[in-house]
Structure formats: structure tokens, C-alpha cells
Amino acid sequence: MEQNILDKLLAEYETFTAAEKKIADYVLTHQRESQDLGITELSAECSVAVSTVSVFCRKLKLAGFHDFKIELARANTLRPGQRFSSGAAEPQPGDSAAQVMDKAYHRELEALRRSSAMLDPKAVDQAVELLLRAGQVLLLGQGNHCAVAQIAWAQFSVASSKFKTIQDSHLQTIALSTLTAEDVVVYFSYSGATLEIMDAVDVIRQVGARLILVTRFSRSPAAEFADVVLISGAEERPLQFGSGEALLSQLYVLDVVLDCFCLQAGGHIREDREFIGKELSKKHL
Asked: Mind listing the pLDDT tens digit for each residue in 230-282?
């Protein structure tokens, strides 16, 4: 039988350095929890440097930390009786359409519950204050999170014309480069740890703009540079990319911020939204 990552950790344990043994000990003790942590969070839990975690993964002949999480998820899946945090909500071979519907409902309901519990009202207030004072607001994301940024623009555009979004990564860089210290970027990223978002962070810091990050991980690399971090609570397995629960969780955060923004903006927001609604209703057959 092919050796899984947990067996490999045990087999090669004596070859690890003291710092690497801390990582192995934590992962073996918290097998389920470890697969949901970002690299920064795992390093913090183990009291080691992020670079140590990267070296540890390569020592296991993996391309990087993401591969490590994938292998850990596979190992946990193969263990008898072990399931992910969504438990019985995980679809299984042989499930009927009705069973899949019920499991999806409970999975997404749990994502919303976790998001509500993890979203900090003070952080929401801080984000809204930045949006109210901003000259312009750029809503960004990569991959499936581009769709969230697009929805955010559609929602906020009925409240103010200062909200914009761009899908193309090259045009995003151009737009970021032309921002000023009066402007705000809202970036949607589940991990907060991609090359694209760190490139964006670098430009944002250079121009002096403010960053609101909507992410799952409060200790992600991008979160270290964000002015405000809004936590969306859905858990996404390593083999998933842009799961429905993760996107729904970010849309929940979006709705909360939008409602608070409109309540505090005052002025003609209500009238403007009603006028736009009436104009759009004319397009219905």
C-alpha cells in the first residue's frame, strides 16, 4: 500500500530538525485541524518560521505547502470513520439527489453560521468608515473570487459611483498603480496567500492606498498588511477551489458591509436605489 503523508511523518520523524519535529508533532496531534490552516497560521501554532514550514514540505518531497495540505486531506479521507468538518454533510457515492440537496443545505447553513460567529463587528465598522471616506474603491479578486468582486461592484454601484471592479490581472495592476492615499482596495481571497494578492499588496503599499481584505485566515501573509481584515468562516478543503460554501461565506460578509454602508451613508442612497430599481424594472417583460 502506498504510504500516506501521516505514515511518512512517522517513518521519517527522526530525520527532522527540532523545529521540523514541532511541525510534525502538531500535525500528527491535530490532523483534521491542520489541513484547514494557512502556512502562516501553522507556523504560528508551531512557533516556527514560515520558511521552516516550506523547507519541511520540500523535505517530504512535495512542491510546497499547498501540496502538503492536499496530501493531508487525502490521508484523513482514507482513515476509517474520519470526515471533514462538514461531517454528514459530505456527499457520498450512492447518495440520491434528495440526499445531496439536504447535505448541501446543511453545509452552506454551517458556512453562514461560522461566518456570522467569526465576523468582528468592530472590523465591519472600520471597513465601512474607510469606504465612506474613500475617493474611489477598487473591488478585486482572482479566480472564482473575481465573481464575488463583480457581484460586490453590482451591489455597491447602486449606492455610489465610486465603486469599480476589473477582472483582467494586467488591468488590475494598472488600476492599482493609479490609486492615491485617498483610495481603498477591497480584495476577496479565501487564503490571503497567493502570488497575485501579494503583488497587489506591494503596489497598494507603494501608492499609499488602504486595503480591506475579505479572507478566511486572519494570519495570512496579506492580512499582515491589511488595514482591516474581514473573516469569512467557511472551511474549504485543499482539493476544492472556490467552493460554494466559501463563495457564499464571502457574499454574507459583502451583504453585511453593504447594508452598514448604506445605513451610514444617509443622503439620497435610499432614493437612488429606489430610482435604479424602477428603471431596471422596465426591462422586465
From this structure: 998 777 665 566 688 889 999 999 999 999 999 998 777 777 778 888 888 88
Host H or E run for residue 186: strand 184-188
Who's near 265: CB < 8 A, 6+ residues apart? 132, 159, 160
228-231, strands of its sheet edge to edge: 163-165, 137-141, 184-188, 210-215, 228-231
- Please state, in angstroms and rounded to a whole number, the distance separating the CA atoms of residues 265 and 132: 7
Pairing of the two strands 184-188 and 228-231: unpaired
Dihedral sign of CA atoms 259, 264, 265, 270 in order: positive
Sign of CA dihedral 116, 120, 123, 125: positive
What is this structure's pTM? Answer: 0.72
pLDDT tens string 94-109: 989 999 998 888 888 8
CA end-to-end span of the chain: 62
Short-list 201, 220, 216, CA closest to 39: 220
Nearest to 230 by CA among 204, 252, 208: 252
How many other CB atoms sit within 10 Å of the CB of residue 62? Answer: 18
Q: Are 24 and 13 in contact (CB under 8 A)?
A: yes
Do residues 3 and 61 lie in contact, with contact meaning Cβ atoms separated by under 8 Å?
no
Nine cell digits for residue 110: 454551517
Mean pLDDT value across residues 144-164? 93
